[in-house]
Design a protein that fits this description.
By secondary structure, the protein is an alpha+beta fold. The protein has helices at residues 43-58, 73-82, 97-102, 128-142, and strands at 12-16, 21-24, 33-38, 64-69, 89-91, 109-113, 119-124, 126-127, 159-160. The chain is 29% helix and 24% strand. A seven-stranded mixed β-sheet has the order 2-1-5-4-3-6-7. A two-stranded antiparallel ribbon has the order 8-9. A hairpin with a 5-residue loop joins strand 6 and strand 7 (119-124).
Length: 162
């Protein structure tokens, strides 16, 4: 079962597609972070990543965004290129160290970790309401005005399970 809101974010270390090793919580430097667990074959992930990319663009500073792939490095790197992912892509395969700790119920699963290292929000699948809630929560942590990431009239469905 995924970590509950209020739980301490569990530590892990994963290698990124850039060759760098990423450590949670050490690399967060007391900043909020969003983890996005995904698979390269997940159609719901394909739908979600443009909105996740908007989240990065809406709030460019003061937080970390890590995409955590459950696929090998070569497929993860290609997926990131195809979907315009410019933030770190961490490879969780083949051992699934982070996935075993966080137990995402579906892909994508998004986890907001606050600056104190606690889980502040989780969502899985694709939900415009959840993405907008995540945007509001992240903005509050950053003490900036929130932006709507997923308008209702943008031609995409409001919800799709992962």
């Amino acid at each position: 079962m995924i970590l509950e809101v209020g739980a301490i974010a569990l530590p892990f270390a994963l290698l990124g597609t850039d060759g760098r090793e990423y450590h949670l919580p050490k690399d967060l430097s007391h900043q909020p972070a969003v983890l996005v667990f995904f698979k390269t074959t997940c159609n719901t992930c394909d739908l979600a990543f443009p909105y996740v990319n908007r989240l990065r663009a809406a709030y460019p500073d003061g937080w970390q965004l890590w995409a955590i792939s459950q696929d090998p490095t070569d497929r993860s790197r290609e997926y990131a290129s195809r979907h315009g992912i410019t933030y770190p892509v961490l490879v969780d395969a083949p051992g699934y160290a982070a996935s075993k700790l966080y137990d995402p119920p579906a892909t994508p699963t998004l986890v907001l970790i606050d600056s104190n290292g606690r889980v502040a929000y989780t969502t899985h699948g694709f939900s415009k309401d959840d993405l907008n809630a995540l945007s509001r929560l992240l903005a509050a942590h950053l003490r900036v005005e929130s932006e709507i990431l997923a308008p209702p009239d943008d031609g995409q469905p409001a919800f799709r399970p992962g």
